[in-house]
Specification:
- The complex is a heterodimer.
- Chain A folds into two domains: 88 residues, Beta Barrel (Elongation Factor Tu (Ef-tu), domain 3); 155 residues, Nucleotide-binding domain of ferredoxin-NADP reductase (FNR) module (Rossmann fold).
- Chain A is an alpha/beta fold.
- In chain A, strand 1 and strand 2 form a beta hairpin.
- The C terminus of chain A is likely disordered.
- The two termini of chain A are 30 Å apart.
- By secondary structure, chain B is α/β, with parallel strands linked by helices.
- In chain B, strand 1, helix 10 and strand 2 form a beta-alpha-beta unit.
- The radius of gyration of chain B is 23 Å and the shape is globular.
- The N and C termini of chain B lie far apart (52 Å).
- The model of chain B has no long low-confidence stretch (mean pLDDT 93).
- The chains are: A alpha/beta, B alpha/beta.
- Chains A and B meet through helix 1, strand 8, helix 8 and helix 9 of A and strand 5 and helix 14 of B.
- Bound molecules: flavin-adenine dinucleotide (FAD) (2 copies), iron/sulfur cluster (2 copies) and FE2/S2 (inorganic) cluster.
- FE2/S2 (inorganic) cluster binds next to loops of chain A.
Chain lengths: 279, 472
C-alpha cells in the first residue's frame, strides 16, 4: 500500500499527489512512469513520475481528471493509500549531453516534460521551456521549470503570458536558432503540430506517447503504436519515440476505443455520487 | 471409511466415471466453473478402477512423476488424509494440474487400463484430492524446515516460480518471489479463465506457499524495479520463471484496428481485471457480436469460450490446419463444441477489414490444404490460390502464440539466450550465470503448466545442491 502524503490542486482539473513509493523514488529516471491500481476492482492506469523526493521516499503524480479512474484517484485524501504501484516502467529519456534543448509541454504534459528538463539541467544542458494552457489558471509547473531555465508561457486566451499556442512560441525560438533537440509532451494534436513544425526545421523531436495500457510489461500488446511503419509496444519500447516517425492518427484512433464504456462508467459514477450526496 | 475388498474382475468391470458438469447451454452464459468435481461416491468408484500396477506406466507419462497408484490407493481406501499427503509431496499445485493438465497426452495416455477401454481418470482424482486438501488444510500443515540462512529470489509467480519457491522453502531457504503484476499466479490468473480454473483455487495454492514461509512481493518488475545483477548481489541464488509473455501478432494489414486484441490482452482484461463484471469492475472490454479467434491451442479455446460468455452470437475458431493437429486439450475442444463455438479448419487470415471509423468489420481469409510432411513430420498448410473469402466479425482475437519477453533479459546481456530469445538452461535449470537458474516458458517457449512446475521443482533441487556446495 502506498500512502498519500500530500495533495495539491494545480489547475481546475489537474491535481498533484505525493505518494510513498521508496524504491521507485530512488531509482526512477526521466521519462519513466508507473502503473497504479487504486483499489481492488480499479483499472491499472499509467502515470508519469513527475518528480521525486528520494529522502522522503515519495513520488509525485500529476493527474488530469478525464474519466472514472483519474477522478477516483484525485478524490483520495492525504493519509489514504493506493493499493498497487508498479515501476518505474518504460525506457528512460534519451538525454543529450551538450547543445540546447527546447521542452514543450501542453496541459498535463507539462508535468511529464518536467523530469526531462530536470535531467537535462543536471547534465548542464541549457533548457528553454514553452508551456501552455487554456488560460492562466490552467498553467502548471511554471515555477518548477523556471528553476531549470527560461520559460515561455502561452495561453489560448492571452490571460497570462503570450497569447496563442505553444507552437507559435516554439516557432519563434526555432527560427532564432541554436536548438539541438525538442522534447514535446501534451495532447495528441499538440504533439502532431509540434512535430510538423520541427520537421520543417530539421530538429530531432522526442514525443511521449500515451496509448491505453494494461500491464506495462510488454505482455498484452494493447499499447501498440506505429513508429516508422514498425509496431512498437509503448510500455517497454517507449513511451518516448522519434516524433517525426510516429503515426499520430493511429494513436488518436486507438485512444477512442473505449469511449462509450468510459461514458457509461462515468455516468454510473456520477449517479452514485449524487445518491451518496442525497443521504 | 473402510472399503470392502473387491475382486480384480469386479474392478475391471467398473466403467470410467463421468465428470459432472454445468449444463452447456447454461454455462455458455456464465463464468462459473464448468466441471463440478467428483462427489465422494464417484471418486471411490473411479479410484477402484486403478489396478495398482507393479510397474505403473502412468507415472512415466507425468512430467513430475506423481506417484499415481499410491495416492489413488489411499483414495480407494477412503484415507484422504494420506492421499493428500502423498499427492502434495509430489506436486505443489494439484488443484491446478488436476484441472488443466493435458492428461490425455500425459499420465492417462500411458495408463494400462486405456489399452482396453478408458484410462483411469487420474486428473479428476487428483482434483478431488486437492479440493479435499483445501477443505482440510489444517490437518496437513507441515513443520517448517530448519532455516539454512540462505536467501533465494524467484522471478515470477507463475507455476514455475511458485513450485520452485515451495520446494526451496521446504529445504529451509528463505525465499522471496518478485511478481510484476498485482496478483500472483501468472497465466493461471491472467490467462486461464475462471470457468476452467477458479481464481480461488490459485489463491488457496498461493496461500499454502505463504504459510510455508514463502514471501511474495507483487508489483516488482525485474529488469526495471531491480536488475538481475542487483538480485545477484543480494541473494545466494536466483530462479527465473518469468514466462513467455510477449504476444505474437499476425503481421497482416488492419491489425491495429479497434477490435483486434492479442489473446493476452483479451483474457487479461476479462480474467485478471474482471472486465466481465464491467462496470462493477472499472476495466472495460469490447463485447463482440461475432468474434473470430485465430489459433487452435488452449489459448484460442479459452478466448472463444470467453467471447461466448460475454454475449457473442457467434464465436469462431479460425485454424489453419485440421482438427487433428489442434494442440488444445481434448476436454476443452469438446466443451467448446458443446457450448456452440464454431470451427473453421484449414483457414488462415490475410487481412483485417475495417470501416471508415477504423472498427473491425471482418476478416479476409484464405483456405488452406495440407501439403507434404516437412522435416518435423508435420504436414504444413499451404494456401489454395484464389480461395479468399470474407468472414464477418467485429472482434478479432489473435491467439497464435507468444515469445520470450525481453524486458528482463535485455538488462542482463551476460545471460545466454538462444536464437529465439529464450534463456538457455541445462537439464538442471542452470543458466550461463553461476547461481542463476531458470525454467518454465521462458526456457521452453510456450509449453504447459506441469512442465513449468517440473522445471521449478528440478531447479529447486539443483539450487539446493548449489547452495550446499557454495562456500560461505
Ligand atoms: C506512459 C503514460 C504516461 C501518462 N502520464 C500521465 C500523467 O502523468 N498524468 C495524467 O493525467 N495522465 C497521464 N497519462 C494518461 C492517463 O493514463 C489516462 O488519462 C488515464 O488512464 C485515463 O483513465 P480514466 O479512467 O480516468 O479515463 P478514461 O475514462 O479511461 O478516459 C477518458 C478520456 O481520456 C482518454 N484517454 C484514455 N486513456 C488515455 C490515455 N492513456 N492518455 C490520454 N487520454 C486517454 C479517452 O479517450 C477518453 O476520452 C499517461 C499515459 C501513459 C500511457
Ligand atoms: C490462455 C492460456 C491457457 C492455457 N491453458 C493451459 C492448460 O490448460 N494446460 C496447461 O498445461 N497449460 C496451459 N497453458 C500454458 C501454461 O499456462 C504455461 O505454460 C505456464 O503458465 C508457464 O508457466 P511459467 O511459470 O513459466 O510462466 P507464467 O505462467 O507466464 O508466469 C510468469 C510470471 O512471471 C511474471 N513476470 C514476467 N516478467 C517479470 C519480470 N520481469 N519481473 C517479475 N515478474 C515477471 C509474470 O507476470 C507472470 O506472473 C495456457 C496458457 C494460456 C496463456
Ligand atoms: S500432474 Fe498432470 S500429468 Fe502428472 S499425474 Fe497429475 S494430471 Fe497427470
Ligand atoms: S497405469 Fe493406470 S491402472 Fe496402472 S497404476 Fe497407473 S493409473 Fe493405475
Ligand atoms: S501495456 Fe501491455 S504490452 Fe504495453
Amino acid at each position: 500500500m502506498h500512502r498519500i502524503v500530500s495533495k495539491t490542486r494545480l489547475s481546475p482539473n489537474v491535481t498533484r499527489l505525493d505518494v510513498e513509493a521508496r524504491r521507485i523514488a530512488e531509482i526512477r529516471q526521466p521519462g519513466q512512469f508507473v502503473i497504479i491500481r487504486r483499489a481492488p476492482k480499479a483499472e491499472r492506469i499509467p502515470l508519469t513520475i513527475a518528480d521525486t523526493n528520494p529522502v522522503a521516499g515519495t513520488i509525485s503524480l500529476v493527474i488530469q481528471s478525464v474519466g472514472k479512474s483519474t477522478q477516483d484517484l484525485v478524490a483520495m485524501e492525504v493519509g489514504q493509500a493506493i493499493q498497487d504501484i508498479s515501476g518505474p516502467l518504460g525506457m528512460p529519456t534519451e538525454l543529450i549531453e551538450s547543445g540546447r534543448a527546447l521542452c514543450i509541454g501542453g496541459g498535463v504534459g507539462t508535468a511529464v516534460v518536467h523530469p526531462i528538463a530536470q535531467g537535462l539541467h543536471q547534465r548542464e544542458v541549457p533548457v528553454i521551456s514553452v508551456i501552455g494552457g487554456r488560460s492562466k489558471e490552467w498553467v502548471i509547473f511554471e515555477e518548477e521549470l523556471r528553476r531549470l531555465g527560461e520559460v515561455v508561457v502561452c495561453t489560448d486566451d492571452g490571460s497570462y503570458g503570450r497569447k496563442g499556442f505553444v507552437t507559435d512560441a516554439a516557432k519563434d525560438i526555432l527560427t532564432a536558432g541554436g536548438i539541438t533537440i525538442v522534447y514535446a509532451v501534451g495532447p495528441v494534436p499538440m504533439m502532431r503540430a509540434v512535430t510538423n513544425l520541427t520537421r520543417s526545421f530539421g530538429v530531432h523531436t522526442v514525443v511521449s506517447l500515451n496509448p491505453i495500457m494494461v500491464d506495462g510489461t510488454g505482455m498484452c500488446g494493447g499499447c501498440r503504436v506505429d513508429v516508422g511503419g514498425e509496431t512498437k509496444f509503448a510500455c517497454v519500447d517507449g513511451p518516448e519515440f522519434d516524433g517525426h516517425k510516429v503515426n499520430f492518427d493511429l494513436l488518436a484512433d486507438r485512444l477512442s476505443t473505449y469511449r462509450t464504456h468510459e461514458q457509461s462508467s462515468l455516468d454510473r459514477h456520477d449517479h452514485n455520487c449524487r445518491i451518496g450526496l442525497g443521504k | 471409511m473402510i472399503q470392502m475388498k473387491i475382486s480384480p474382475k469386479e474392478r475391471l468391470a467398473i466403467q470410467r466415471q463421468l465428470m459432472p458438469e454445468q449444463d452447456a447451454l447454461e454455462r455458455a452464459h456464465n463464468f462459473a466453473e464448468v466441471n463440478l468435481g467428483f462427489p465422494e461416491q464417484l471418486a471411490l468408484l473411479e479410484a477402484q478402477r486403478c489396478i495398482q500396477c507393479k510397474d505403473p506406466k502412468c507415472v512415466n507419462g507425468c512430467p513430475v512423476r506423481v506417484n499415481i497408484p499410491r495416492f489413488i490407493k489411499f483414495v480407494a481406501e477412503g484415507n484422504l488424509q494420506e492421499a493428500a499427503r502423498s499427492l502434495l509431496g509430489d506436486n505443489a499445485l494439484p488443484g491446478v494440474t488436476g484441472r488443466v493438465c493435458p492428461q490425455e497426452t500425459q499420465c492417462e495416455a500411458e495408463c494400462i487400463r486405456g489399452l482396453k477401454g478408458k484410462p483411469v481418470a487420474i486428473g479428476y482424482l487428483e482434483r478431488y484430492v486437492a479440493d479435499w486438501a483445501f477443505q482440510n488444510a489444517n490437518g496437513l500443515k507441515q513443520a517448517p524446515a530448519a532455516p539454512t540462512g540462505k536467501k533465494v529470489a524467484v522471478v515470477g509467480a507463475g507455476p514455475a516460480g511458485l513450485t520452485a519457491a515451495g520446494e526451496l522453502a521446504k529445504q529451509g531457504h528463505s525465499v522471496t518471489i518478485y511478481e510484476a503484476l498485482h496478483q500472483p499466479g501468472g497465466v493461471l490468473v491472467y490467462g486461464i479463465p475462471e470457468f476452467r480454473l477458479p481464481k480461488k483455487i490459485v489463491d488457496l495454492e498461493v496461500q499454502r506457499l505463504q504459510e510455508a514461509g514463502v514471501e511474495i512481493e507483487c508489483n516488482v518488475v525485474i529488469g526495471r524495479t531491480y536488475t538481475l545483477n542487483e538480485l545477484r548481489a543480494k541473494f545466494d541464488a536466483i530462479f527465473i520463471g518469468n514466462g513467455a509473455g510477449l504476444p505474437v501478432f499476425m503481421n497482416v494489414p488492419g491489425e491495429n484496428f479497434k477490435g483486434v486484441y492479442s489473446a493476452n490482452e483479451y483474457l487479461t482484461r476479462v480474467n485478471l481485471m474482471a472486465a466481465y463484471d464491467f462496470p462493477q469492475a472499472d476495466t472495460p472490454v469490447l463485447i463482440g457480436k461475432r468474434v473470430a479467434v485465430l489459433g487452435g491451442g488452449n489459448v484460442a479455446m479459452d478466448s472463444a469460450r470467453t467471447a461466448k460468455r460475454l454475449g457473442a452470437d457467434a464465436s469462431m475458431i479460425i485454424y489453419r490446419r485440421t482438427r487433428k493437429e489442434m494442440p488444445a486439450r481434448a476436454e476443452e475442444v469438446h466443451h467448446a463444441e458443446q457450448e456452440g463455438i464454431q470451427f473453421e479448419f484449414l483457414v488462415a487470415p490475410v487481412e483485417v477489414l475495417g470501416n471508415d471509423k477504423k472498427w473491425v468489420t471482418g476478416l479476409k481469409c484464405i483456405r488452406m490444404q495440407l501439403g507434404e510432411p516437412d522435416a518435423s513430420g508435420r504436414r504444413s498448410p499451404v494456401p489454395i490460390p484464389g480461395s479468399e473469402f470474407v468472414l464477418d466479425c467485429d472482434i478479432v482475437v489473435v491467439a497464435i502464440g507468444t515469445r520470450a519477453n525481453p524486458l528482463l533479459t535485455a538488462t542482463c546481456p551476460e545471460l545466454k539466450l538462444n536464437k529465439r530469445g529464450n534463456i538457455e538452461a541445462d537439464e538442471n535449470g542452470m543458466t550461463s550465470l553461476p547461481g542463476v537458474f531458470a525454467g518454465g516458458d521462458i526456457v521452453r517457449g510456450a509449453a504447459t503448466v506441469i512442465l513449468a512446475m517440473g522445471d521449478g521443482k528440478r531447479a529447486a533441487q539443483s539450487i539446493g545442491d548449489y547452495l550446499k556446495a557454495k562456500v560461505g
